Amino acid sequence: MRRRRGRPLNGWLIVDKPSGMTSTQVVGRAKRLFDAQKVGHGGTLDPLATGLLPLAFGAATKTVPYVMDGTKVYRFTLKMGEARDSDDADGNVIGTSDVRPSDEELRAALPALTGDIMQVPPVFSALKVGGERSYDMAREGRPPELPPRPARVDRFELIERPDRDTAVFEVESGKGVYMRALARDVALACGTVGHITVLRRLRVGPFTEADAIVLDKITPNDDNAHASPELLRPVSTALADIPALALTQDEAVLLRHGQALGLVDLMGRIPQTAEEGGVVRVMDGEHVLGIGRLEDGWLKPVRIL
Question: b/e map of 75-108 (b: 16 or more CB within 10 Å)?
Fold first, then answer.
């Protein structure tokens, strides 16, 4: 069997993505810098966007779904008066409007776009339609009609109004919410059109801007031609937002071997924030054993690290 190229590194690297790069390009560059066998990312950012792009190395890729399920915080600038086909500044102008809503009108439009909403994704998105990517179809001049999808927006605030043409918003949301669509829709709700000119992600799950590192500042070790693995955060940091449940050594052995544990035996240790059908971070002393699900009276192993 052929050996995989690169070093078998495990952990998280929280990159402050620069504008103009795709998420895939950031992954490729980090993989080369660290000479890593396996790298993935925890949630795509548009090329125009900057901010947090968590990169998962090796075993950390097992925890990517839990990072993507975590809360995300974005800040974006809406430019009013121009609609773009991509709903951001990289697209072509497809409509204009002279209407410039007041701060009060913008704020009045936000409640309808907060909570559990139905959102029409941007046509320039990676969603598949009949086996084809929506953005490929749009680039070929045959943009598909995308149906509305459920989305969860927990907070949507007007932060700043630099001038009559622009407004800055901050959004806290779950996964799968398109900021470009929110910008487009708040403009439409106010009787005008608009698109995003600046987009920055400030938080992904447990990771914040304080955790982020700029790609250009990652330099090789003096000892070799590759970046130091010490820059990587432990795999378990991705699970910090998930309620923790402590097991005894005997219980940990059973769960590690794929056996479910009765919740009656765990009473008094189950965290109050854990929900029926929800997941918990299973602890073996100070060590994170993995992820379990509380279901039908059992703690069932979902992912053992």
Answer: bbbbbbbbbbbbbbebbeeeeebeebbeeeebee
Q: What is the mean pLDDT of the chain?
A: 90
Dist. CA 43–CA 123, nearest whole Å: 19
Output the domain CATH number for residue 292. 2.30.130.10
Same domain, 180 and 76: yes
Q: Could you list the residue range(s) of the whole structural domain that residue 200 is in?
A: 72-204
Encode 24-35: b = buried (16+ Cβ within 10 Å), e = exposed: eebbebbbebbb
Q: Which amino acid is at 257?
A: H
List, by residue number, the catalytic residues: 46
Q: Are 203 and 72 in contact (CB under 8 A)?
A: yes
* Residue 135 resides in a domain: yes
DSSP state of 263: G
d(CA 246, CA 286) in angstroms, rounded, equals 9
pLDDT digits (tens, 9 = 90+) for 46-100: 899 999 999 999 989 988 888 888 899 999 999 999 999 999 999 999 999 999 9
Residue 173 sits in the same domain as residue 121: yes
